[in-house]
Design brief:
The radius of gyration is 19 Å and the shape is globular. The protein has 7 helices and 8 strands; from the N terminus they run βαβααβαβββββααα. 31% of the residues lie in helices and 15% in strands. The two termini are 32 Å apart.
Length: 240
């Protein structure tokens, strides 16, 4: 579904219509506050600019080595660890905590993706929500470095933040390729600061906010600070 939805989201009602159109299907969604950036995993984004050597380029051997080091050095920080051979599960944990991998973060929830899109969206004039469906699924024991097409990996909820974010990942055989070129990818733009702000307010009223998406004291503090910054009421019902 989602074929009737407009490519531009101008209000909460447009977002609600998109949610209605996509319900019951296998869509996953991603929100970005920057418009026009390539949809590319972190492992394939090589640094550029002044002071950066021009010969830096993506090497899969570097990515493999980074994953193996993470699997070894992350042990003291994890309450539960997947089997060593579950490379996709390890890769998902590394991705979730900020390591550059061949994965892209998505959510099974359109509203959570919309939150990440409008969180600071509007500062540049627009935010973006991506959606994709119809991708093949892979399992924890599959080798992420042997895939021949972009696939979906739905991890077990190994961290406290994965569950409320309804986290899922796409795994990319070529991390340097822009996924926007895939015909299965849909894009919706949220234009303007005012629209981003209004959608964020409604999402907050629905419980989609920092405190619930990041269920720890830092998420709570960030949410309360946001309400303080904009002089919004600090009633208990709006924080959890």
């Amino acid at each position: 579904m989602a074929t009737r939805s407009k490519s531009t989201i101008g209000s909460w009602l447009d977002l609600a219509r998109l949610a209605e159109d996509s319900a019951g299907d296998d869509w996953i969604f991603r929100g970005e506050s920057l418009a026009g950036e390539p949809l590319r995993p972190g492992a394939g984004r090589m640094p550029d600019g002044p002071g950066v050597p021009r010969d830096l380029h993506f090497e899969v051997e570097d990515e493999r080595a980074a994953l193996e080091r993470f699997k070894s050095d992350a042990l003291p920080y994890l309450d539960r660890t997947p089997p060593s051979g579950h490379h996709l599960e390890w890769l998902a944990i590394a991705q979730h905590y900020g390591m550059r991998t061949r994965m892209l973060d998505w959510s099974e929830s359109l509203l959570i993706a919309a939150f990440f899109a409008v969180e600071s969206g509007g500062a540049g004039g627009a935010a973006t929500i991506y959606g994709v469906r119809g991708l093949p699924a892979v399992e924890a024991g599959d080798d992420p470095f042997q895939l021949d097409e972009v696939s979906v990996y739905r991890p077990s909820r190994l961290t406290a933040r994965m569950a409320p974010q309804l986290s899922t990942f796409t795994v990319h055989p070529d991390p340097t390729a822009d996924f926007r070129a895939d015909p299965r990818v849909r894009r919706w733009r949220v234009n303007g600061r005012r629209n981003c702000w209004q959608i964020k307010l409604v999402l907050d009223a629905c419980g989609v906010n920092y405190a619930n998406i990041f269920p720890d004291i830092s998420g709570l503090a960030r949410h309360i600070h946001w309400r303080y910054k904009w002089k919004l009421p600090q009633s208990r019902g709006t924080t959890r």
